[in-house]
Amino acid sequence: MINLMICDDHQIVRDGLSQILGLYTDINVIKAVSTGESLIKELKNTQPEVLLLDISLPGRSGLEVLKQVKLLYPDIAVLILSMYPEDQFAIRMLKAGASSYLNKDTAPDTLVEAIRTIAIGGEYISKEVTNLLVGEVLRENEVLPHKILSDREYEVLLLIGQGQTITEISIKLHLSIKTISTYRTRLMAKLEINSNAELVKYMIRHGIIGAE
Fold this sequence. Notes:
Helix 7 (151-161) crosses helix 9 (177-191). The chain is of the alpha/beta class. It has helices spanning 11-21, 36-43, 62-72, 86-95, 108-119, 127-138, 151-161, 166-173, 177-191, 196-205; strands spanning 2-7, 27-33, 50-53, 77-82, 100-103. Strands 2-1-3-4-5 form a 5-stranded parallel β-sheet, with helices on both faces. The relative contact order is 0.11.
């Protein structure tokens, strides 16, 4: 039996995943929580074999939570299940210790296959992520400005690229407008960019987002 926890801030996602995974007799969803803080609290009492973790969480980001989980409980296999396309976050998550990265559009059978694979110590790497890893190796000596952004700065960058305002981002990430503005100022300084329009052009040029 694979004991599994879910950490996602949307109740409909937590309930949906619990219902779907409950159909498989070898998977036991022991807890579903909405924040990284509540997850760390639960893990003090019970450690699952597998953790399904979202990236966009209120307060601390999923990437920050992943790093803490792997530091405190290195034997827990973490599967990142995110709305972000693979090319935006997969490499960062795998480098931080995730055993798999899947998009939330993934078919249930694929998700279950990934869970079973990482539960026994393996890694489940999709074709899309494999291509990204190959590209990363080929460009390993290339240091692009966006690669030196902090985890939260990078997440704010992606949300700006989606056209979200500072206010909308602050609501989504449960952080103050001042804090988001500070992240924006820092990331734009690191990228040597002065406007959102230039920021979007940069992201398109480096394949972080697609051109519409």
